């Protein structure tokens, strides 16, 4: 893609699809992380300047893994090692990660492909605890009509963002969550993306009440392959429009030493002339 191609995308004839959920108090999240909190700390009128002007500010409290976010490579380890064989004791210093922290997540502007699993199965969304299999991914890739480029982004749709307004259903603690399993992770790794994403909290399949049994897909992608994972995305708009391939853009916050970052990814799609 040339500079002129990128400039053209910023002009007319391009539609932007926001792939992030609004972030507010009480959003669905993993019980493993502190909740998001936002509170106004200074109201208009609390301080009034001589010219009559006033300002208002707030305080934010959040984990790097609440709302739409991207995992840094420091987020997961296996046998005491991060991606590249980095020992966890070497990766951390004075309460933050000096290797593989969120500030090292690259800004992403690359090919994106939507793998719409419910569409190829002829359903509205996947069932709780349902695994996305390699044959599902093959069919979804064929439907998208695109060839994955190394360093791109693959977004796996389950239809789960339809439940975002129902916190208990979306979190799936007692019902399980649909997603990628170990075989699907191998399928993804062979295509060498820079990142993958999905709509659920963990991206990977969760059986009911099994939170403590490990995260094999996180291990395979983050630890073995160095592939970032984007979670709690909003993919319904892309699916409804029948979009398969697009320009994907995501800029994480440069949170030094963090294990993840809130993000606002979007897809840019050229409209018909």
UniProtKB/TrEMBL annotation:
SUPFAM superfamilies: Putative cyclase
GO MF term list: arylformamidase activity
A GO biological-process term: L-tryptophan catabolic process to kynurenine
Pfam family, one: Cyclase
Signal peptide segment: none
Gene3D superfamilies in UniProt: Putative cyclase (3.50.30.50)
Name by which UniProt lists this protein: Cyclase family protein
Organism: Microbacterium ulmi
Source lineage: Bacteria, Bacillati, Actinomycetota, Actinomycetes, Micrococcales
């Amino acid at each position: 893609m040339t500079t002129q191609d990128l400039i053209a995308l910023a002009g007319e004839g391009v539609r932007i699809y926001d792939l992030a959920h609004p972030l507010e108090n009480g959003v669905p999240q993993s019980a493993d992380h502190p909740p998001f909190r936002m509170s106004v700390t200074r109201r208009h009128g609390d301080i009034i300047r001589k010219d009559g002007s006033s300002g208002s500010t707030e305080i934010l409290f959040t984990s790097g893994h609440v709302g739409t976010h991207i995992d840094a490579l420091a987020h997961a380890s296996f046998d005491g090692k991060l991606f590249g064989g980095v020992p966890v004791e070497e990766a951390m210093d004075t309460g933050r990660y000096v290797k593989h922290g969120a500030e090292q997540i690259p800004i992403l502007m690359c090919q994106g492909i939507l793998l719409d699993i419910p569409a190829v199965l002829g359903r509205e969304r996947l069932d709780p605890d349902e695994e996305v299999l390699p044959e599902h991914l093959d069919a979804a890739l064929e439907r998208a009509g695109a060839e994955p480029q190394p360093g791109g982004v693959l977004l796996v749709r389950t239809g789960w963002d339809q439940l975002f307004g129902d916190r208990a259903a979306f979190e799936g603690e007692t019902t399980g969550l649909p997603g990628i399993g170990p075989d699907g992770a191998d399928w993804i790794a062979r295509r060498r993306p820079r990142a993958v994403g999905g709509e659920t909290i963990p991206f990977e399949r969760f059986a009911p009440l099994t939170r403590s049994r490990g995260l094999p897909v996180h291990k395979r992608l983050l630890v073995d392959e160095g592939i970032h994972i984007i979670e709690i995305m909003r993919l319904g708009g892309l699916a409804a429009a029948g979009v398969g391939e697009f320009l994907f853009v995501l800029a994480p916050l440069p949170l030094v030493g963090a294990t993840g970052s809130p993000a606002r990814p979007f897809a840019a799609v050229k409209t018909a002339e």
